[in-house]
Amino acid sequence: MMHESRLKSLLDDRESGAPATRIVRIMSERGALSAAQIARLTGLARSTVSMALAELRQSGIVVEVPGGEEAAKGVGRPATALTLNPEAGTCIGLHMSLDDIQLVVADVSHSVIAEQNIAMQRDYSPEEAAAATKAAVERTYRENGLSACGLLGVGVSVSAPVSPDGTVQRASIVPTWAGVNIRDAFEPVFGSPILADNESNCAAIAEMMWGAAIGCEDFVLFKIDLGVGGAIVSGGRVMTGIAGGAGEFGHLSLDPDGDLCRCGNRGCLELTASFNRPLEQLSRLYGRRMTMDDAIRLAEQGDVGARRLIEDTAAVAGRGLALVGTLINPPLIIIGGRMALAGDILLAPLVAAYEKHTLIKARDVAERLRTRITIGKFTENDKLLGAVGLVLRHHGRLD
Amino acid sequence: MMHESRLKSLLDDRESGAPATRIVRIMSERGALSAAQIARLTGLARSTVSMALAELRQSGIVVEVPGGEEAAKGVGRPATALTLNPEAGTCIGLHMSLDDIQLVVADVSHSVIAEQNIAMQRDYSPEEAAAATKAAVERTYRENGLSACGLLGVGVSVSAPVSPDGTVQRASIVPTWAGVNIRDAFEPVFGSPILADNESNCAAIAEMMWGAAIGCEDFVLFKIDLGVGGAIVSGGRVMTGIAGGAGEFGHLSLDPDGDLCRCGNRGCLELTASFNRPLEQLSRLYGRRMTMDDAIRLAEQGDVGARRLIEDTAAVAGRGLALVGTLINPPLIIIGGRMALAGDILLAPLVAAYEKHTLIKARDVAERLRTRITIGKFTENDKLLGAVGLVLRHHGRLD
């Protein structure tokens, strides 16, 4: 814990532009990097980087990591890389749910040190959320022997559009939070930087920093779950929209005479491409309540009904995703959400529908110009890891 | 013409980072700027900017412009501003059409010095295009007393997706050009930088540099004409997509069982939201061939049929645009294309349909979080001016 305040002061130094500051910032944003990558990303001379790294390693802020799993999988990590010392600081990630708050404490290498669910009364207020979170954080830090002065910030994932200033726009999960400014609610309690974003935007950040989009500055995240959502990343930046509404794929209104959606429009993609209705049908058929995990398990075991429901829903989702493709033509589309656990059972019919309905089809262009569609790395912890990512990116931003 | 080579060498200097270089680059990209704006945009100290500007003015590269029309309209131009001397360099903008090539020569303040249509045989080859353009350029330069050594580059607008390396992906107007690399075709003939992009992307650049999106880094351009197209600008960058297919709003496939579109999909927005079919109906009704200008004039004169056709088409287009809004939630949407000349006759029903079908509705959010929808500044010369803009932005890029 001895290096906490040194790292924090390096990250907080937005003026001097000293090499050590620029190096720890880029590491906090990108994770493990080689000296050559650091030189390229910071624009510093190789010799300057070498000198600064030697000093940072000597003072224990930066440590060497062996080429591990990531390098073996060839996802862009170098064989020998340097990373921030995991002991040098902590971040908190929060996700607000209907009747609980999920909390993780992670180190600067985004390893989860502790996680916890805080039970809440339904319709809990922002003040209650801040107080309960603060108490849980103090207890967790005490139990894990962590020092509060190493806290770099608190990232908050919200199940609603969040405007760039941190205000919740339309609250679907916690209806009473519409209009609440997350920063105003949490900053007085924590006294640390508070970063808030929509849960799908957080998930995109997790995939970009540590998942299926490492090294990719432009991609789309498409989440299929009990709802449908996602995020658009352009030039390394999650597009938020002026009111935090960008990437709301589930609310593409496809049929203006269709069923009413909770958003107030008709015929939204979410009504036919999420797994709510398929699970209702499956539950009726089997006479017991079915979860997405049940449906996936059944389909994997060869159950023709479960398989058909997943395939049909994937086809509808793929047609919606084709519209996103026609608009964005991204290099990479990552499929996330719990249904992504179905793997190829979901992916194959989804890709087929995408190719049928989108403008630029794989068969029409050279391989290097094709949109790649792949299952994401994170399907469960994505919101929370992304909330941690918000904090690290905040410090990493070289502005 | 005495300053041409000096400006060109300043623009070409990508290494030194000298204040004068950074200032002329930002001016070539942004047009007229105050000293304060230059300091902010370049990150240079005010005193450094003043000294460099004094020197640039003395050598005639930069001139002062009075606060003109733009400042009066309050679109972000300062009352007293500096701009590159229009005599200090020239750019060429080209647009490839079915049976002609449109050409403009503009100075660095993007004033058009000369324009010309070069008649071509249908299905003309890239080599023929390059040769004919070269001959026309030489004649135009000679006739206008311009020096070829002041040529900063050639921008080419293409009616098809263009991949970032300059390759035409799907050729709709000039079918034989699919797979042609525009740079390879024109560079040997001109020996100057060749920049190519889709015509809607060029139009977006024109609006961003000199039109309705001045000072706006994030916006959508939606073009309604005999086709429907557009562009998405994010963080000051036109999104191209991996194969140049981003922003193809006309090919959003809304009805998978609808009519076949020329793109190979069914039920594309362009089939119902462009003015092709309305003009056919109007022509049948009036027994003579009607153009968009005829339809607009009739509607303005109170013709109920023309007005109804424009309103209905605007409603369909607005529903399509609502999907773009749900995906991007942009601060600003600019309506372009020839039908934009209909002004409020088009805009009112279009905005009403947008508000009905998009996710984040104006009535639900604070005024500063609302998407603004407005008619663009350029409806005719947008492609050509944007092609000129490609050249200026190429030099302006501070990389």
Automatic annotation (TrEMBL), chains A, B:
UniProt protein name: Putative NBD/HSP70 family sugar kinase
Similarity comment: Belongs to the ROK (NagC/XylR) family.
GO-annotated molecular function: DNA binding; kinase activity
InterPro entries named among the record's database cross-references: ArsR-like_HTH, ATPase_NBD, ROK, ROK_cs, Tscrpt_reg_IclR_N, WH-like_DNA-bd_sf, WH_DNA-bd_sf
Keywords: Kinase, Transferase
Presence of keyword Methyltransferase: no
Domain HTH iclR-type: 27-65
Entries under SUPFAM superfamilies matching the protein: Actin-like ATPase domain, Winged helix' DNA-binding domain
Biological process annotations from GO: regulation of DNA-templated transcription
